Amino acid sequence: MWPGTQDWGGWLTSVSVPAHPEADEKSSTNPVLRAQGLVREYGSVIAVDGIDLSLAKGEFLTIFGPNGAGKTSLLALLAGALRPSRGQVWLRGEALDFGEVEWHRRIGVLSHQTFLYGHLSAEENLRFYGQLFGLSDVDDVVRDKLQHLGLQERAASLVRDLSHGMRQRLALARALLHDPDIVLLDEPYTGLDPSAALVLQGVLSDLRDGRRTVVMVTHNLSEGVALATTVAIMNCGRFVWQGKRAELGNDFGQFYHGVIEGHG
Q: Do residues 64 and 56 make contact, with C-beta atoms less than 8 angstroms apart?
């Protein structure tokens, strides 16, 4: 992980803002999330090197790439958890302003850190974040999210007593608690056994409801492609290939490795 990208806490600690009315719905053809010329440098190291992207409502972008390609840094830039060295991010046409906090309500983030409190129960964790987001119907939302993620029977269990897969699902419930427009997922399959991965796959499939824009980073080639509407392959800080899933052939693994070897 690049220096600084582990500090997603700044994103979460600035979300305590009053609930606000939904903005007027724009056409699904207008970008919900757009970035232009994104660059992030750590001294002499360029982690993200001139990334452009434009995603409309309902799109699901899966980003693949080797370790050190800059994927986590890119997600942190899109989430506003990391300031770009150069470039700009727009949310629904408005430039991301680090001095404002209200736009955080539109983003849900699942990172390498769960941001869950081990001494609290699953339900207490979600209730805490629901209050942080100013949800008026927090009891109903928490109950629905626990049921949706298959955690209703462990609602009273302390987080420290949950398996890794259950904590991962609870972290996803936290990320979706405030019904965000944009969902950013960093390696959601990491460390999951096949059974837990299958449950997660079903939950992620539900995000393809046409209402959200999703960006997911993963090494899981088969599951990542299955969920995607758009695919990007990242290496050395750049998108070395980007296109619609329909453009891909049957053997994505072979295609992916060929692209990486050609841009090593």
A: no
167 three-class SS: helix
Query: What does residue 156 show for φ and ψ, rounded to 5 degrees?
Result: -90, 0
Q: How far is CA 66 from CA 167, 220, 224, 244, in A?
A: 25, 11, 14, 20
CA 110 to chain centre: 5
Question: Alpha-carbon distance 219 to 62, whole Å?
Answer: 10
pLDDT attached to residue 102 = 73
Q: Read off the pLDDT of residues 12-65 as tens digits, 9 standing for 90 and up.
A: 544 443 333 333 444 456 899 999 999 999 999 999 999 999 999 999 999 999
Calpha distance 52→146 (Å, rounded): 36
- And the tokens for 80? 């506003």
Higher pLDDT, 83 or 98: 83
Q: Which position has the token pair 């993963």?
A: 218
Task: Name the residue with tokens 């939950």.
Answer: 203
For residues 93 and 20, give the distance between their C-alpha atoms in angstroms, rounded to a whole number.
18
Length of the chain: 264
Q: Residue 30 has which token pair?
A: 């207008």
Distance of alpha carbon 175 from alpha carbon 154, whole angstroms: 18
For 177, the 3-state DSSP assignment is coil
Residue 226, exposed/middle/buried by CB under 10 A (0-12, 13-18, 19+)?
A: middle
What distance in Å separates the CA atoms of residue 45 and residue 164, rounded to the nearest whole number? 33
Distances (CA, A) of 71 to 185, 196, 223, 232: 11, 24, 17, 10
User: pLDDT tens digits for 188-212?
Assistant: 988 888 888 888 888 899 999 888 9
In 3-state terms, what secondary structure has residue 59?
coil
- Residues 130-161: tens digit of each pLDDT: 999 889 899 999 999 999 988 999 999 999 99
